[in-house]
Design a protein that fits this description.
The structure holds two protein chains of two kinds. By secondary structure, chain A is mostly beta strands. Chain A has no helices and eleven strands. In chain A, strands 2, 4, 5, 6, 9, 10 and 11 form a seven-stranded mixed beta sheet that branches. In chain A, a hairpin with a 2-residue loop joins strand 9 and strand 10. In chain B, the strands form two sheets. In chain B, strands 2, 4, 5, 9, 10 and 11 form a six-stranded mixed beta sheet that branches. A five-stranded antiparallel beta sheet of chain B has the order 1-3-8-7-6, with no helix packed on it. The chains are: A mainly beta, B mainly beta. At the A-B interface, strand 5, strand 9 and strand 10 of A face strand 5 of B.
Chain lengths: 117, 112
């Protein structure tokens, strides 16, 4: 399996501020994903981050609100900008480990629990 | 639209067998995943099915029927530590680029 770490593990932030979440993987991976899990809900993909190119955002998510960096094959950051209480959620980094052919596994980091006051 | 359905909650007894069903309607299909998520923790990968049939991994088995848009996760010899949410997810496009579409999860409670 892939070992994924995230920083911070949790934070409480004021409305209007920004928070940058870091994701570190123990091996090189082509694609990294950022998900959000709002209270009592399932996971929703925010964006896909490829090294050396712009992130691809899902419907309902925009770069100005959730800028992403992917400087190398083991690291990515997600920034939650101009936060509001509706951004309170768990943010999870995820990677795919391709094993053979089309068989692959997808792993999740421990998540960052964000509360916006 | 994309839709993944699974029961919201289930209860079972320690030592028993439980089956968690998942039905899906997605624009494409390139594999179905099951994850376990304990409260306050990240999802943990359990299984992956891309072909029809049963995949067995110890106490956990997962079944897929692509023609029916149906999967189930079977947990045998239930233990208290199996109390968790179980998430069904479908990859809707080929390769690693496909988005994982998640169901809302089934909260399983294992009673003594």
């Amino acid at each position: 399996s892939a070992v994924i770490s995230q920083k911070p593990s949790r934070d409480i932030c004021q409305r209007g501020t920004s928070l940058t979440i870091q994701c570190q993987v123990d091996s090189q991976v082509t694609m990294m994903f950022w998900y959000r899990q709002q209270p009592g809900q399932s996971l929703t993909l925010i964006a896909t981050a490829n090294q050396g190119s712009e992130a691809t955002y899902e419907s309902g998510f925009v770069i100005d609100k959730f800028p992403i960096s992917r400087p190398n094959l083991t690291f990515s950051t997600l920034t939650v900008s101009n936060m509001s209480p509706e951004d309170s959620s768990i943010y999870l980094c995820s990677v795919v480990r391709e094993l053979w052919g089309t068989y692959n596994e997808q792993f999740f980091g421990p998540g960052t629990r964000l509360t916006v006051l | 639209g994309q839709n993944i359905d699974q029961p919201t909650e289930m209860t079972a007894t320690e030592g028993a067998i439980v089956q968690i069903n998942c039905t899906y309607q997605t624009s494409g299909f390139n594999g179905l995943f099951w994850y376990q998520q304990h409260a306050g923790e990240a999802p943990t990968f359990l299984s992956y099915n891309v072909l029809d049939g049963l995949e067995e991994k110890g106490r956990f088995s997962s079944f897929l029927s692509r023609s029916k848009g149906y999967s189930y996760l079977l947990l045998k010899e239930l233990q208290m530590k199996d109390s968790a949410s179980y998430l069904c997810a479908v990859r809707d496009r080929g390769g690693s680029q496909g988005n994982l579409i998640f169901g809302k999860g089934t909260k399983l409670s294992v009673k003594p």
